[in-house]
What we know:
This protein is mainly alpha-helical. The protein is 60% helix and 0% strand. It has nine helices and no strands. Helix 3 (61-79) packs antiparallel against helix 4 (84-104). The protein starts with a helix and ends in a 10-residue tail after the last helix. The model has no long low-confidence stretch (mean pLDDT 80).
Amino acid sequence: MGAARFAVIVTAVLLASFFGMRWLLTIQPLKPDARIPTFHHVDPDSAEYKFQQSSASDDDATRDHLRNEVIDYANALAQDPCNDVLKANYIKAVVAYARAWTSIAPCIAIRSCTSWDSKELDRARAAFGTPLDHRVRDAMMAVHQIVTFGTADFPKDTVSLVSDLAADDVLNSAHQTRAFRRVTAQFDAEKRADCGR
Length: 197
């Protein structure tokens, strides 16, 4: 009886170790992960690529005017970052553009969008998702890397949206003072212009 019990235990341990090691040493294919970027071949002759690189818009004259104003003032301000008149005009154009966004989806202004606001958000994405809007965001990102803006430069109802559109983390930090922004500009001297602000 003791020998049979020993043989069963030894067999169970051997089988468990065999299948355990087999499972442990089997190479598993990688599962897709959203954090890992995927790359695919982009055909520069495809219609989709040409559309994305174009300045196509939704043919709304008011929104096109807002988009073109932001692009024009952003490009001008990038060329002359210490010009206070250009900066004021850029801020005015960006505020008008941001308020056009919030006129369609007001929850964006206070970052309180819920599932109830999905229709408004879809309308805002459709209205401001054109290739020209992507050029607006690119121009805003470029100028915000050169010129230092603060929270006080923009009205409170637009500062968070402008910060998101321009990908400017410094802009939406209420605790950062003018002196801190100036020091940040000095550390990023090769990118940001220090205009004595």
